[in-house]
Amino acid sequence: HDLRNEDLKDMQELGQGNGGSVKKVEHVPTGTIMAKKIVLIDAKPSVRKQILRELQIMHDCNSNYIISFYGAFISDPNICICMEYMDKGSLDGIYKKIGPIDIEVVGKVALAVLEGLTYLYDVHRIIHRDIKPSNILFNSKGQIKICDFGVSGELINSIADTFVGTSTYMSPERIQGAQYTVKSDVWSLGISLIELALGRFPFSDSSSDESDLSDFEGTLSPARPAPLPPMTRAQKDKKKKRKSRGVSLQGGGMTMSILELLQHIVNEPAPRLTPEGRFPKEAEDFVDSCLLKTPDERRTPKDLLKHAWIDHSRTATIDLEAWASTF
Ligand code: ADP
Ligand code: MG
Q1: What DSSP letter does each residue of 247-282 carry, written as one string?
Q2: Predicted ipTM of the assembly
């Protein structure tokens, strides 16, 4: 509870995201290694205090599938959130380092995320709202846990006001303005699982940087604008940046704006685990049921825990600790 910034010694930068940055730190009095998330909040002190109060719920979130919370404090103009440090980082970082992730491991990821979502909703009535590979963390003990869930309505508001744009794990109904439900998280899980199994964001073009136009054409909405002139240097730099975030919005002189991507998600068939036959039928079926476009037809996390592929993943003997030691 009495976590103070003065007691934390910076060790290393872990990453930058939409809302701020994350550092590996040591809590010197106890020797505990933590991850400190620094979120810049452009709001009144009263709002900052309110956010801090709301974050305290995280103290009650105790599950093997949820990142532990050490505490939060204001360090003007930032809010610092201290949480369990996961030494193998997030799953996006892992697949970008080692390539597509074995489907058996992806099955364990699906199981852990569903358990985490079910715990958050059943026990605390919390909807995650930001399931994506960078919010699924892994450690050398072989544990898989989710982080960055929407506990603080006030924090969600403050960040949403400042940052828009990269919400590409967003479900069709959310894009169309419907309320968030646990089923929106299930959509995001489906997209994330394909990304891990294929080693690329499913809405992006499969070839690397010098993607050819015709290849890209097939995967995009027919309502794309005509080709643009060759990219300027500035555009190419931008493209690199986006690539590194795992979202490819451009291909060989073409631009797919964030708007077109959102339109694509709403209007086109959902992505699938392809090519057919490469993955177990049960895995294909699980992903398909996560990516049903109508939320009424989509199952809840709790219900999906009974899916045959999840059943299989529960008993699968794959040794995640051994797997973790390979990278
Ligand atoms: P995003 O999730 O959008 O990437 P964040 O600011 O939430 O942005 O996190 C930035 C990066 O920091 C993540 O991609 C992840 O690799 C790393 N990270 C976040 N939390 C932890 C943690 N508890 N332990 C280890 N690494 C973390
Ligand atoms: Mg995050």
Answers
A1: ---EETTEE--HHHHHHHHHHSPPP-S-STTSS-HH
A2: 0.99
Question: For the whole model, what pTM was predicted?
Answer: 0.86
Those residues whose C-beta lies under 8 Å from the C-beta of residue 237, and which sit 6 or more positions away, are none
The conformation of residue 203, written as its DSSP 8-state character, comes to: T
Amino acid occupying residue 289: S
Identify which of 26, 90, 155 to mutate to test ligand 1's pocket (most ligand atoms within 8 A of the CB). 90
Q: Cβ(25) to ligand 1 under 6 A?
A: no
Calculate how far, in angstroms, residue 19's C-alpha sits from the geometric centre of ligand 2.
Answer: 8
Helical axes 103-124 vs 281-290, angle rounded to 10°: 40
Whether 130 is a known active-site residue: answer yes
Q: Is the CB of 18 under 6 A from ligand 1?
A: yes
Determine if ligand 1 sits within 6 Å of the CB of residue 67: yes
Instruction: Please check whether residue 146 is in contact with residue 128, taking contact to mean a CB–CB distance below 8 angstroms.
Output: yes
* E-state strands within 136-226: 136-138, 144-146
Q: CB–CB of 138/90 below 8 Å?
A: yes
pLDDT band at 212 (very low <50, low <70, confident <90, very high): very low
